[in-house]
Structures are given as structure tokens and as C-alpha cells.
Specification:
heterodimer; A: Ubiquitin-like (UB roll); Fumarate Reductase Iron-sulfur Protein, Chain B, domain 2; 2 domains; two-stranded antiparallel sheet; 34% helix; B: alpha+beta; Flavocytochrome C3, Chain A, domain 1; Methane Monooxygenase Hydroxylase, Chain G, domain 1; five-stranded antiparallel β-sheet; globular
Chain lengths: 253, 657
């Protein structure tokens, strides 16, 4: 593949820690191959900053293959940048043109406090899972895996919801910073499987209560979360969540 | 001599007998016993959850922002289990046999047999947790094939099996956190093991957000910290994957076993340039349906679709007709290297071979057409239908390939090349997964025990979960039963104070160097040395040169590395410096081990030892042992051997022809 080199201008949010105010800082990055990933472009900038005695930009990342959910970045007003169904680590510089100015911000949400620069604390997601995002089965209790046939369509639908990587793009995309898509993905995953049935009601009630406690906003069904989701988690899951919540609330003992 | 503590008796009965006779800790005592688990991948999360369920007070640590990010999540293809749901002749014995053979007869029989025995329980446990495995229309679990086997025993969830299994274990872990049985310390990195009277009694961890050092006591310490593939700089491992926890244990006296046994995975997206930060795997499951080839003519520059069938060399099918494209990973990787080195490579770098789906698309299209009763379907219609089937099976992998390369793999063959993927070597452990330091255990990829010199596909997930869910709950109890008489040790104990001080001094020393070169640049240079001399093929001269190069790299690192920022703040460059310093030392030991092993076996290929047709030539008479290295001083190790005794399987030359 032939490749081109790009010269770009970056506007990056810099913030020392949660207790200080931040600001945008401008950087020039030159000779960026369009075969690079977006994070490799930031690596190049960071290497330059280190050798000139400046502090590198802190950003979260790990697997760099779109599955761990660690990377974030609000790029030119979009979580994970311009490509559809994509994470920042899988965004490649082919998406940009020579001379572009790229604005890079952290996830913005009260429930995700900033750690440093572009790194945020998403511990709220773990606490939502702790509230009920599991099947209460201890190791050793299981019966044979094939003793319980599950309709393939239901299994596929549960899998589609279970694909959520917990990155938080849905929260970042939402004008209210709602975590409904994240929460609904877990509720949908387990509600569509017989294994999730015994705790179906308590799960949804407890998880929603925890979400509210964490300071996430309300859902107004604009669909921004679905559009930003790197794993294309469907907003239909939110409808299912609402149904599950209503059902649980109405039939609770 | 190393005591592997393998129980007596028939191979089939060892684990059953062990479980029936091991010591137990009563529930009231478990509640008083703190256990430390470092790492929250499949091994760590499953261990922490299971031990929490049993009532132990668990403290779990991970360096990521959440335990759900651990690199097990990136495993694509699947997990093996001897369920024989396909009625194709699978059994515990066959899984055991395939694993031993795949590992080129350098794994311990008793451990591998236990792994095969519990493999079925893992699937059951995961299904019970709600892991959405792929299913057939009848509602039952689906299977596919992986390399090195002739049965279909791999369970999967599209190309995201690791993710689904890890989320299952993570959810079980979070449930224990909610119940108060596990305390989770995320964004924490273990920087030393604390030993008191020769036993592991705790760790020093660094809070990566504040930089503060913390002392944690535990009756036992479980290292579930994964492999060390990132020593190569470029690998399919996550950026943060590191050897630090295992290496600190090694420096405290734990033996490091078979460090030169590393796995180079045959199907990865080739390197595109110097900027590259990591490599991406294309799941081995693609070899189920894809065909691997290079042009028959050297230096053929035609586009792949312009090269007619008769001018293509399907070299794996040619060399290994019995297993074809499904030979084990080490064999497939070396065969790709052989073709590229001989001048038949493709793409701009010429360091790539084709993985072609055209035949599979047509085959699936025909099946689909016949399912739908379209007996006169045109070739175009068949291809459209075939692409749909392939998309359902491998869609996410094809998408990933397209994003990274900018090419459409449904239309042109993928270009692939081997890359570092897994490390079979690791901390030496006995049958109970305990290192030679009492109280210090190693689980999953962090230990060396089950895969010999080469791991079969879909066996890493199996081992991680076997260790965490089904082995450690028994073996830990057996070792803690006598500890109930000992009261917890306060972290004001001098051993904790000294360990903390040593860690602080090392960090300060790193920071004080204030040199000119970045941590990343050292890591890259280390990776190049190891890849060239201790990668897919190794030689005596090359390894000796590598050892000298690494020693001088180490000197340069400790005199010229530059770490920006402060110690007492969130400082990823400092974290990385700590890790790279350990990788440099490990790199040297890998070369020492590779140099010591004067034979070829599995992933360890010494150029001096090969058969006339280029296959690995083992030396069972002299090297049928686990090489367990003890750190003595800088650049100095002592070799301890654990002889491998094959009581059931008779080692032979691996034959996939």
C-alpha cells in the first residue's frame, strides 16, 4: 500500500490532576504516516516531548486492538473519533488530511473525574456491575453446559449485548452523561439468558439505583450513545432496560 | 533437586486422590486469612472470585483502571475442553495427549492431565455464569477446530472468546467485591514480594495514581500476572503487559523456568513501519477455513488475484498433508519464515504470506445455495452468499484487518506474518502451583507448567481458568491449613519496611538518572536484539552476541534513561521505566536459557539442531528437563533441572505429515 505523510496541528487538553484546572495546548506534529494508528501518532508526539524535556501527554490505552476498552479520547467532538464502530486505538491516520487541526479532549462527565490530561477514572462502571451485573453462581455449582439448550437467536442477542467493552464512549457522547447504554447492555445480556432469570428483578433495580448514585444523568433517547458505541450496542437495549425496570418495579414483592 | 510434588499413583487418579486427601481450612479460619492476588486476567479474576466465594479475605491488584481490562480479554479464537460433544473421538486422554505432543514433550504429564480433566468443568462454569458461547440451531454449544488437533473441541464466542470469558470471571469477581470478600486495588502495580522467614508474606505495591508505595500482608501471594511477550517490544500483547511481578519474585529467589520457550504466532498482521507500537493477531481459527500460500515464483510482484491457481504454493498443505493449514503454531511460523527468507514473501516488505479466503467463500456459498434450494445459482450469487457466511463466522476479525491495513480481506487475500504472542516459560511451580518460595504461587501464563515448548491454540484460556477456578482453591487450602496457627504479621514488621525502602530507592535511582534517551527507545532496541537472536530461530553465535548486547544496553539504560514528571503523581513513563528495566534483565536470561538448550523443540529452534528437512530436532537424552534458573548475582544464574518423566506417553518426533 502506498502511503502519505501528514503534517497536523493538535489541540490537546492538558490538566495536571483532578484538583487543578486544565487548558488546551497546541502542538505541531509532522511527517505522520497515514498508516499509523491515532495512538501511535500521539506516541510520536510524546517521544518528542520527552526528548525536549516536556511532560508527555497522559492517555489511557492497553490492548490497542479495540477490545479492552481502556482507550478513550474525544476527538474532534466525537468519542473515539470520526470512524463508525471503532475505538480510538483502531483509528488510523488515513482518517485525516494533511494540514488538519485535531482537537483531543478527555471523556467529559462528572461521574468520570479526570486523573491527568486525557485519562479519566471510570470506577463508577465497576461499581454498577458490583450492584448486580452478574449471575450468583459459585465455582463448582455448574451442571453440564449442554443440559440447558438456549435458542440460538436468544444466545446471539445476549452476545450482541455482552460485546460492550465498558469504555464509556456512550457516557461521553451523551449530553446528559447518561450511562444507560452501558447499563442496559449488561441487563440485556443477562435478561435474555435463562441463567440470568432468578435475579432478573433485583439486578435491574439495584444497578439502576447505583447508576443514579454515581451521578450519571438521565436518558432522553437522543441516540448519541448508540452512534458513538464502538461495538454498535443497540439503543434497543435501553428500551429493554426500561421494560425490565418497569416490570421489576411493578411486580416486586 | 526440585521437588515437583507430583502425587503418586496412576495418572488418571492423581488429581482425584489429591483432592480427596488434601488438607482443608475450616470456614471460620478462612475468614481470618488474607490472600493476595496480583493480576486480574482469567487466572487472577477466577482465583480471586473462587477464593472469595470460599470465604478467604482476598486483596486483588491490577495495574489497569479496571480488572475487566486484563489482556486475557484479547484472546480471540476459543477455549478447548474435552467434552466430546461432537462425537468425533475426543476424550480427556486425547486432549492430554495432544497438549503434551503439541508442547514437543517438554511439559509435565501430571499437570497437563489435570488440565484436561478439569477442562469440561470450565465450560460448565462459564455457561452457568451466562457466558454467551456460540450455539447451534438446536440450542446446544458449538465447536470448531484449532491447530495441532484432529477433533473439534474448541468452544467460542465469535472472535471474542477471551472477552466473554474474562467478563464472566470479572463479574464473579465484582460480585465478591460487593459481598465484601474481595478488596480490589486497580491502578496498582506490585513492585516486590515481601519474604519473612523464607515465606512469601506480602507485597509492596505502588498506587499508580498517587505514586505512593503501599505494604500489604497476606498469608499467601498469588501471581497471576501473565506472560512476558513484551520483552520483544513488538508483540500481540497489550502495551502494559509486563514481567515485573514475576521478575521481582525471581529476584527474591523464585526460579524462572524455560524462559526461552516463547510462542511466535503464525497469523498476525505484518509490521508496516518503524512507528509500530504493537502487532495484531488474526485468530488461529482463520486457519480453519483460510488457505496459506505464496507464489511459486521468487519475487513475483503480481497482485495476488492475478496469480493463477497453478502458480501458487500452498506450502503448509504441501509439506504437512495430514494437518495442512492446521499444523501447530511453531511449525506454521517457521514454515512462513522459511518461505520469506527464501525469497517468496509478498507485500512491500516481502515479510508476509497470503491467508486466502476465496476458496472458503465459494465453498460456503455453495452450501448456502443448496440449503436455500438455489441449484442454478451463478458464481456471483454464490460468492455473495459465501461472504455472508464468512462474515458471520469471522466478521470482527475481517473488520479489524481492514481498519489496520486499509485493504478489504473479502476481496484480496490477507497478508500475514508471525509475531510474538505467548510465553510458555514462566515462574517454576510444583504440582500445587507453588513456586520454590513457600506461600508464593503462580497461575496462568505467569507459570511455566502446562504447555511445554509450544502451546496449542485455545489452551491458554483453558489453563488460566483451570488454575484459578479448579486448582488453586484446593492447593491453597492444603498449604494454608498449617498457617492457621500463625497470626497476621503487621506491615510495620522490619521486613516490610526494608522492602518498601528498597523499592523507593530504586524508583529514586531511576528518576535521578535524568539522561537523554526515552524509555521507549531502550525498549525498542531490546526488542530488536531479542527478535533477531532469540526469536523464531536461534544460534550459538547469535545468542552470545545478544547477551553481550543486552548487558551493554542495561548499562546504557541505567546511565542515560530520561523519565519526565514526578515520582508522586500519575506518571506512566515511570511505570514503563520500571518494567523495561526488568525486561532487559529477563532478556538476558532468555538468551542464557536458549544457549544452554542445545536442541530444538517446539518454539525453541536452534539452527544447529534440525532434521534434514528442517524440522526441530530434539535431544531427549540430554535435555528432557525443565530448566529452572535461580538468580545469583548480576548476569549470573544457577541452573536447576527438573527431569521430565513420561510414564504414559512415549515421546517421539512430532509428525504432522
Amino acid at each position: 500500500m502506498a502511503h502519505n505523510n501528514l503534517n497536523l496541528k493538535l489541540k490537546v487538553w492538558r490538566q495536571k490532576n483532578a484538583n487543578t484546572t486544565g487548558a488546551f495546548v497546541k502542538y505541531d506534529v509532522n511527517d505522520i504516516s497515514d498508516e499509523m494508528s491515532f495512538l501511535e501518532m500521539l506516541d510520536v508526539l510524546n517521544e518528542k516531548l520527552i526528548t525536549t524535556g516536556e511532560e508527555p501527554i497522559a492517555f489511557d490505552h492497553d490492548c490497542r486492538e479495540g477490545i479492552c476498552g481502556m482507550c478513550s479520547l474525544y476527538i474532534d467532538g466525537k468519542p473515539h473519533g470520526p470512524w463508525q464502530a471503532n475505538t480510538t486505538c483502531q483509528l488510523h491516520m488515513r482518517a485525516f488530511k494533511d494540514g488538519d487541526t485535531i482537537t483531543i479532549e478527555p471523556w467529559r462527565s462528572n461521574a468520570f473525574p479526570i486523573v491527568k490530561d486525557l485519562t479519566v477514572d471510570r470506577g463508577a462502571f465497576d461499581r454498577i456491575i458490583q450492584a448486580g451485573g452478574y449471575v450468583s453462581v459459585n465455582t463448582g455449582n455448574a451442571v453440564d453446559g449442554n443440559s440447558l439448550p438456549i435458542n440460538k437467536d436468544d444466545a446471539d442477542a445476549a452476545f450482541a449485548a455482552a460485546m460492550c467493552i465498558g469504555c464509556g464512549a456512550c457516557v461521553a457522547a451523551c449530553k446528559n452523561s447518561s450511562a444507560m447504554l452501558f447499563l442496559s447492555a449488561k441487563v440485556s445480556h443477562l435478561a435474555q439468558l435463562p441463567q440470568g432469570e432468578p435475579e432478573r428483578k433485583s439486578r435491574v433495580l439495584n444497578m439502576v439505583a447505583q447508576m443514579d448514585k454515581e451521578g450519571f444523568g438521565s436518558c432522553t433517547n437522543t441516540g448519541a450513545c448508540e452512534a458513538a458505541c464502538p461495538k454498535e450496542i443497540s439503543i434497543a437495549n435501553i428500551a429493554r432496560l426500561n421494560k425490565e425496570y418497569l416490570r421489576a418495579g411493578l411486580t416486586q414483592e | 533437586m526440585l521437588n515437583s510434588k507430583i502425587p503418586a499413583g496412576n495418572l488418571d487418579d492423581k488429581w482425584v486422590d489429591y483432592k480427596g486427601h488434601c488438607k482443608l481450612v475450616n470456614p471460620a479460619n478462612k475468614r481470618k486469612m488474607e490472600v493476595i492476588v496480583v493480576g486480574t486476567g482469567l487466572a487472577g479474576a477466577s482465583a480471586a472470585a473462587s477464593l472469595g466465594e470460599l470465604g478467604y479475605k482476598v486483596k486483588a491488584f491490577c495495574f489497569q483502571d479496571s480488572p475487566r481490562r486484563a489482556h486475557s480479554i484479547a484472546a480471540q479464537g476459543g477455549i478447548n475442553a474435552a467434552k466430546n460433544y461432537q462425537n468425533d473421538g475426543d476424550s480427556v486422554f486425547r486432549l492430554f495427549y495432544d497438549t503434551i505432543k503439541g508442547g514437543d514433550y517438554r511439559a509435565r504429564e501430571a499437570n497437563v492431565h489435570r488440565l484436561a480433566e478439569v477442562s469440561g468443568n470450565i465450560i460448565d462454569q462459564c455457561v452457568a455464569q451466562g457466558v454467551p458461547f456460540a450455539r447451534e440451531y438446536g440450542g446446544l454449544l458449538s465447536n470448531r477446530s484449532f491447530g495441532g488437533t484432529q477433533v473439534q473441541r474448541t468452544f467460542y464466542a465469535a472472535g471474542q472468546t477471551g472477552q466473554q470469558l474474562l467478563i464472566g470471571a470479572y463479574q464473579a469477581l465484582e460480585r465478591q467485591v460487593a459481598l465484601g470478600n474481595v478488596t480490589m486495588y486497580s491502578r496498582h502495580e506490585m513492585l516486590d514480594v515481601v519474604k519473612i522467614d523464607g515465606k512469601a508474606k506480602g507485597i509492596i505495591a505502588r498506587n499508580l495514581i498517587t505514586g505512593a508505595l503501599e505494604k500489604h500482608f497476606g498469608y499467601a501471594v498469588l501471581l497471576c500476572t501473565g506472560g512476558y511477550g513484551n520483552v520483544f517490544y513488538l508483540s500481540t500483547n497489550a502495551m502494559g503487559s509486563n514481567v515485573t511481578a514475576a521478575w521481582k519474585a525471581h529476584k527474591q529467589g523464585a526460579y524462572f523456568a524455560n524462559p526461552c520457550f516463547t510462542q511466535i504466532h503464525p497469523t498476525c498482521i505484518p509490521v508496516s513501519g518503524d512507528h509500530q507500537s504493537k502487532l495484531t493477531l488474526m485468530s488461529e481459527s482463520l486457519r480453519n477455513d483460510g488457505r496459506i500460500w505464496v507464489p511459486k515464483a521468487k519475487g513475483d510482484t503480481r497482485k495476488p488475484n492475478e496469480i493463477p491457481e497453478e502458480e501458487r504454493d500452498y506450502y503448509l498443505e504441501r509439506r504437512y498433508p495430514a494437518f495442512g493449514n492446521l499444523v501447530p503454531r511453531d511449525v506454521a511460523s517457521r514454515a512462513a519464515k522459511e518461505r520469506c527468507d527464501a525469497g517468496y514473501g509478498v507485500g512491500t516488505s516481502k515479510q508476509a504470506v497470503y491467508l486466502d479466503y476465496a476458496a472458503a467463500i465459494e465453498r460456503y456459498g455453495k452450501i448456502e445455495a443448496s440449503k436455500q434450494g438455489l441449484h442454478n445459482a451463478s458464481k456471483e450469487e454464490i460468492i455473495v452468499m459465501g461472504k455472508e457466511v464468512v462474515k458471520e463466522k469471522y466478521g470482527n476479525l475481517f473488520d479489524m484487518y481492514a481498519k489496520i491495513t486499509g485493504e478489504n480481506p473479502y476481496e484480496v487475500p490477507m497478508r500475514i506474518y508471525p509475531a510474538v504472542h505467548y510465553t510458555m516459560g514462566g515462574l517454576w511451580v510444583d504440582y500445587e502451583l507453588q513456586t520454590n518460595i513457600p506461600g508464593l504461587f503462580a497461575l496462568g501464563e505467569a507459570n511455566f507448567s502446562d504447555h511445554g515448548a509450544n502451546r496449542l491454540g485455545a489452551s491458554a484460556l483453558m489453563q488460566g481458568l483451570a488454575d484459578g477456578y479448579f486448582v488453586i482453591p484446593y492447593t491453597l487450602g492444603n498449604n494454608l491449613a498449617d498457617e492457621i496457627y500463625n497470626t497476621p504479621i503487621p506491615t510495620s514488621h522490619p521486613a516490610f519496611e526494608e522492602a518498601e525502602k528498597a523499592v523507593a530507592e530504586r524508583i529514586q535511582k531511576l528518576k535521578n538518572i535524568n539522561g537523554k534517551q526515552s524509555v521507549e527507545s531502550f525498549h525498542k532496541r531490546l526488542g530488536k536484539i531479542i527478535w533477531n537472536e532469540c526469536g523464531m530461530s536461534r544460534s550459538e553465535a547469535g545468542l552470545k552476541k545478544a547477551i553481550a548486547d543486552i548487558q551493554s544496553l542495561k548499562k546504557e539504560f541505567w546511565s542515560d534513561v530520561r523519565i519526565p514528571g514526578e515520582i508522586n503523581e500519575y506518571n506512566p513513563e515511570l511505570d514503563k521505566a520500571n518494567r523495561v528495566a526488568d525486561f532487559i534483565e529477563l532478556g538476558e536470561l532468555m538468551c542464557v536459557d536458549a544457549l544452554n538448550r542445545n536442541e530444538s523443540c517446539g518454539g525453541h529452534f536452534r539452527e544447529e539442531y534440525q532434521t534434514p528437512d528442517g524440522e526441530a530436532l530434539r535431544d531427549d537424552e540430554n535435555y528432557m528437563y525443565v530448566a529452572a534458573w535461580e538468580a545469583k548475582a548480576e548476569h549470573e544464574w544457577e541452573l536447576h533441572k527438573e527431569e521430565l518423566k513420561y510414564e504414559v506417553i512415549k515421546p517421539s518426533q512430532r509428525n504432522y505429515k
